[in-house]
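WARN retry 2 of 3 for item q-0093 after timeout on previous attempt; input resubmitted unchanged.
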Amino acid sequence: MNSFPAPYLQETATWAQQTFEVSVPPGNISYNQLEEILGRRLEYLISNDLQQFIFLLYRIDVAEKKVKQILAYAAQQGTDPYRPIAALIIERQLQKIASREAFRQDNLPDDEERW
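OK item q-0093 returned
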């Protein structure tokens, strides 16, 4: 699972709601709840709008190799790939949020010194 702070997960839930057009319950959401919600949406996209699914994966910058591994494993085991792919997406978004926080430049004197 993850070891990111709860606010990161809430930010990820808000992002998922906007990006994937899913309904996320108000208040604190657990990682498992978000994974389930996103997994159901991925199931719909893979079944009904594969182009949109592929577009979103590239936009989110999820490793294609990892998605292919999940799909191959799911096909081999006869399981659904949706939640594992949802977990990849959530983890990628959490990494982006953590990275932005780590490289914040709030302590610079003015905008000219920021890049």
